[in-house]
Amino acid sequence: MRLSWARSITYTVVGALAIGALRLTPPAPAARAGDLLSAREIDPMRVLGRDQADVPVIPYAFDPIVTPVLVVANSNRIIDTVAVTGTIRSSLYAALDQFSDGVLPRGQRHRLAWLLADIYEYRVDMSKDLQVGDKFGVVVERIQEPTGAVFTNKVLGATMELSGREIQAILFRSNVAGGEYFDAEGKSMRAAFLRAPLNFRRISSVFGMRRHPVLGRWRAHKGTDYAAASGTPVRSVGDGVVIFAGRKGGYGNVLDVRHRNGYVSRYAHLRAFAKGVHRGSRVGIGSTIGYVGMTGLASGPHLHFEVLVSGVQKNPRVALQMRGGEPIGSSERGTFLQQRNRALSFLKDFSSATSGGE
Which of 41-45, 69-73, 104-108 is predicted least confidently? Predict the structure, then answer.
């Protein structure tokens, strides 16, 4: 991945105060030779009317970062917003690891990857859908404690460009639609199905023809395998009713869950079923229904996952692809558009500035 850039803006209340501080920012001084970006600074106490003698300062390693506009939330911690854009070269993990600890500690960079995976889990399977050259951008709150420890907090907005298709996600609290994040049209990121049955996922094969690792011959592989440690929780990809729970030939311990509209999801090679899960059980989307194992014809611990529609096996990657959830209320649209435009404009400015500097 080629590092794009990150920009930090500290603020007391996300939104109005941050924008107000930026408007008070004086013109940038001329860049010195060797500087990747010139710095813009503002006296934070001119905004807050406080003595800045005890203002803590976040240490930064040399990175393409614009010096932050300091607006201290209180004397104990600093809350700021970090905006990061980048390009996928191998994985989202690897892309975020290109940033130094001055932006986010390594553990928090990994946490940010999983925050994004959770936000997009109804639209994107980070294990399968990301391709080399895809782009991402994220605006996330960062907290520095008095001890110096730095944590990621809420993702305020994000965008992912997958094979030319852009999907935005905006943090918004709706009194009408469910979920915390909404796409650019104001539709909930939630859908009828999750894109993957594991939170921790690593795919060992793709849908299509493969050589069976135990039988040793080529045959159609009707599903997707997720390699994971034995005992990893398996979640139902949608609301439904368990219609089979038991052993079934090469599947070993297997669960079949019936959903609406003729959909059935199948989970095989399980080590065990979750407590209380049996034929006739009702399960909710995202609920734990079993645990990864290697029962049946399995060469190692993994989950074999299938989707059947009206009794016919389908490619899970295609069958579970959903677009657009419940929309926000009409009375909320004005507020939502303000938040959406602020977040997306922020990221667009980053992309424009980066392109202009190349």
Answer: 41-45
Q: What is the largest CA-CA distance in the chain?
A: 75
Q: Residue with structure tokens 């408007």?
A: 23
pTM score over 0.85: no
Q: Which of 77, 74, 65 is nearest to 39 (CA)?
A: 65
Residues 217 and 294 in one domain: yes
Structural domain containing residue 281: 203-319
| Under 8 Å between Cβ of 167 and 147 | no
Token pair belonging to 6: 């990150």
Q: What would the pLDDT profile of 102-156 be if each residue is shown by its tens digit?
A: 788 888 988 898 899 899 999 988 877 888 999 999 988 999 998 889 999 999 9
Give dist(CA 116, CA 154) in Å, integer: 10
Report percent pLDDT > 90 for the chain.
Answer: 41
Work out how many domains the chain is built from and give that number.
2
Task: Specify whether 335 is located in the same domain as 314.
Answer: no
Write out pLDDT tens, residues 14-27: 444 444 444 444 44
- Looking at the fold, whether 27 and 97 belong to one and the same domain comes out as yes
The single-letter DSSP state of residue 239 is S
Q: Closest Cα partner for 317 from 168, 161, 181, 193? A: 193
